[in-house]
Model the fold of this input.
Amino acid sequence: MSLQVVSLFIIAIPVASISWTITHEEVLREFRELCMVASKTRQHLYARKFFYLFTCEFCLSHYVAAVFLIVTRYKLLFTDWRGYLIAGFSLVWVANVYMGLFGRIRLDLRKERAEIATEEAGLAHTR
Done:
């Protein structure tokens, strides 16, 4: 059981990392903007939902977690299909906690950088 819990927290790291990178980072900004437009303008509902998937870290984390379940064959509590189901939702939950913490840390860092820049500008202005 303890190995299953450790595995849960470890496997959730790449799930969170991939989901966050696709939905937030600058390296994929153009792709994300294209998906955002397509999610609002496509005629068919399934197409709009497909493209929306790449703009929402929570939504995308379900699919990334499913891929990791297939690759790792990770199960939680049960050895049959119920283990996959519980593991999938658990991975999504832990990954989203990680992303929430990461987002909060980044926000705090941006705030600190802005405060430092304001202070430096004030010091430069008084000289």
About this structure: The chain has five helices and no strands. The chain has one domain: 2-101. The first helix runs from residue 2 to 24. The two ends are 63 Å apart (CA to CA).
